[in-house]
Write a structure and sequence with these properties.
Elements lengths: L16 E10 L9 E11 L4 E5 L8 H12 L7 E6 L4 H6 L23 H13 L5 E4 L7 E3 L2 E4 L5 H14 L3 E5 L8 H7 L3 E6 L8 H17 L16 E5 L5 E3 L4 E5 L6 E2 L4 E6 L9 E4 L4 E7 L3 E2 L4 E8 L3
Parallel strand pairs: 3-4, 3-5, 5-9, 7-8, 8-10
Antiparallel strand pairs: 1-2, 2-4, 6-16, 7-9, 10-18, 11-18, 12-14, 12-17, 13-16, 14-15, 16-18
Helix pairs in contact: 1-6, 4-6
This protein binds zinc ion (ZN).
């Protein structure tokens, strides 16, 4: 038997108009015996048409998507919508309020928690609600991320390709419509706990983003988020008349083919990057040198790229532990 979510709200998903209130996630703790966590939700519906789910704050320290959705939800009027838009600008609300990747309540990562558990800790309960109650009624989804506190990305849109050819073609068209400077297909390698994996299970055409990072947002990265969301909503005809400004340059379509396109620190220490974001590198090339501050005269440990490609992501903090991701690569898709 499928267990039902314990999250409730005053939202009537079938009602036309604009509704904004809070999902109520029961959270009985010492300071609040009958309390609930209030997760903001906005729903705009007008007549019949597709449903699109827009999420940000899946990771609390990734800000472009949160800003873009907070601005969009204040601006949109239901008369301009054809179908339904559901927005969660602070999907893992406890993580958002703390400015952390993971929830400080349960130390959990929402994007490794799907399909979730209605009786689990808060992050698992949120994942379960999104998959069972929201993705189940959606046709399209955009899950807005960036590199967070520990990573910096070239501004990207991405998709985990659906096994359904038609959905995969729709994902590619959404990536092109989003028009980030680059877009890539990320092959999941068995990772089925992400929101994009949940969307694929639900047969929802979904894309994500990695818009920047370093624990902040920039003029450029917020603009790419805002423009990209609007352009996709226009492309899928949910906001047919929205102003999307001038046509951007075509997006560079790439792919991340496997785990060996990632480079990890081989040791604890201070890492010296030997290449930078956007560089093209060759298999075997040195990526970083890790120095030991406790024993400065010790030879640094070098790490190398296993594959050739373009660096689309790098680590931000200077201190590393063995196993921290330093870089990852993408390669151009063959035309
Ligand atoms: Zn993220």
């Amino acid at each position: 038997m499928t267990r039902k979510s314990r999250i409730t709200s005053e939202i009537d998903f079938g009602r036309d108009g604009k509704q904004q209130c809070f999902l109520r996630l029961p959270h009985s703790i010492h300071r609040s015996a009958y309390g609930w966590i209030a997760i903001p939700i906005i729903v705009l519906k007008n007549g019949t048409g597709p449903t699109v789910l827009l999420t940000a704050g899946n990771h609390g320290d990734e800000y472009e998507g949160q800003l873009a959705l907070m601005k969009l939800c204040r601006e949109l009027e239901p008369e301009t919508v054809c179908g339904r838009i559901i927005m969660l600008p602070a999907a893992n609300y406890p993580a958002v309020i703390a400015g952390l990747r993971t929830s400080p309540i349960d130390d959990s990562n929402l994007n490794r928690s799907f399909p979730g558990d209605p009786d689990g800790r808060p992050t698992a309960a949120i994942a379960h609600y999104i998959e069972s109650e929201l993705l189940s009624i959606a046709d399209f989804a955009i899950d807005l991320h960036s590199g967070g506190s520990s990573l910096m990305y070239l501004p990207s849109a991405l998709a985990t390709p659906s096994e359904d050819d038609q959905l995969a073609a729709t994902q590619l068209n959404m990536l092109r419509a989003f028009a980030a400077p680059l877009a890539y297909f990320a092959y999941p390698g068995g990772e089925d706990r992400t929101m994009l994996a949940a969307a694929n299970r639900a047969k929802v055409a979904a894309i994500g983003t990695e818009l920047g990072g370093s624990g902040t947002a920039s003029v450029q990265s917020v603009a790419i988020a805002e423009r990209g969301v609007r352009r996709v909503l226009k492309h899928i005809a949910v906001l047919p008349d929205v102003d999307v400004g001038q046509d951007p340059l075509p997006t560079r379509i790439m792919e991340v083919c496997g785990s060996d396109y990632y480079v990890y620190s081989p040791d604890y220490g201070l890492w010296e990057p030997l290449v930078e974001l956007g560089d093209d590198v060759c298999a075997g090339q040195a990526a970083a040198a890790v120095y030991c501050p406790q024993t400065p005269w010790r030879e640094p440990v070098l790490t190398h790229f296993a594959q050739s490609g373009t660096i689309i992501c790098r680590r931000v903090p200077g201190l590393v532990e063995r196993g921290d991701c330093l870089f990852h690569l993408a390669t151009d898709c063959s035309p």
